[in-house]
Amino acid sequence: MRINKVMTLGAALTLAFSITACGSNNNAQTNNAEPTPAPSTEVVATPEEVVDPGLQPEDGATLIVWESREERAFTDEIAKQFEEKYNVTVKVEEVPATDQVTKLTQDGPSGLGADIVMFPHDNLGRAVVAGLLLENDVFGEETIKNNTEASIQGVTVDGKLYGYPRAAETYALFYNKDLVKEAPKSFDDVIAFSKTFTDKSKNRYGIMWETGNMYFNYPFIATDGGYIFGEKGTKKDDIGINNDGAIAGLQTFVKLKEALPIKSGDITPDIKRSLFNAGDVAMDITGPWELAGYKEALGDKLGIAPIPTINGKPAISFSGIKAFYVNSFTQYPNAAKLFANFASSKEAQLILNEKVGSVPTNLEALEADQIKNDPLVAGFALQVINSNPMPIIPEMNNTWTPVGAALTEIWDNNKDPKEMMDKAAQQIKDLNDGVTK
């Protein structure tokens, strides 16, 4: 898909989020080391202008925040600023975003959970069903006014707002401009390039991505008409991972083994990152959490483009919203709500972009020069236009393991895609129905 180059990034992002429903990342938690922030050319204000409707932290309040490893640099900074403004001590603990709801389910009722958690929106449904979160009530009107419609939808369940959106995410094609002169338009182009570059004996590959992870492989399921759940992810009994469109798209997945002739288990975020930084992987399908580190390693050699087309169609990726939430079991709900609002403001989202490379949800942040003038962030804006939000229903949690296992069998052992996806669909149905075997 080609977009007129005079379109501003702010306009592209606004369009993207107006035509997608709601969404966040992911089952794609990575284990990369904390990125070293690139020097900023724009002075980013601290979140001093956050509206405070008279809410004050409780006497003696202290807060714990769970944060993913790759975004720790941002939360450490924002916690410091919050402490300076409110005189409330904030401790940041590393917990993978995709593990936080499970951990909160275990630790929340006993008082051991964090006061503020952060996770992608596809986990929200089960967190709400379990009674783990307080509504975003005090700052709800402000949150709705300041953020994209899609991000608000992504953190809302049954008409109730729970989240404080901080970033929109999808993944895209990172490429090394020294190795790939022009971003490939199709996966056929990727395969053609890889024939000239891939050499397994030298541990060198034209492209790499996590082939056993449904999050990154959703384009092969969805682009030709497959889906996870029907009716825009709301109908648990309508499973579309094994329909004709999904199987057609997975034929491209199978062909790509020629470009990446290694087992799924040998592709980890750390391995992939190391090879890409060293120039031994020319292209990587990943998300904005890698942006700061890849910019530091490659500099001007780094390019970002939409995912190549599949069977002549623009690749459809998963999209999502990452947001803060307040633990319903917190001893300090006032302080926790203040922090969640403070850490998701316009200024905070610009700091998050600077530290990590994330795409803001705040409408004013999207119009900031820091965002509009960044061609790398623009690459994600183009991809998010062709993205589907991850389903928010609790049954989404039942999909990752069966589909991941099916993809691994297809990739590693040349199993038939239809057979494997039929099996995964049945496993998901059984889990949804509470069937144990």
UniProtKB/TrEMBL annotation:
GO terms for biological process: maltodextrin transmembrane transport; maltose transport. GO terms for molecular function: carbohydrate transmembrane transporter activity; maltose binding. It is a lipid-anchor. Coiled coil: none annotated. Keywords: Cell membrane, Lipoprotein, Membrane, Signal, Sugar transport, Transport. InterPro entries: Maltose/Cyclodextrin-bd, SBP. It is found in: Cell membrane. Belongs to the bacterial solute-binding protein 1 family. Residues 1-23 form the signal peptide. The keyword Nucleotide-binding does not apply. This is Maltodextrin-binding protein. Pfam families: SBP_bac_8. One of its GO terms (cellular component) is ATP-binding cassette (ABC) transporter complex, substrate-binding subunit-containing.
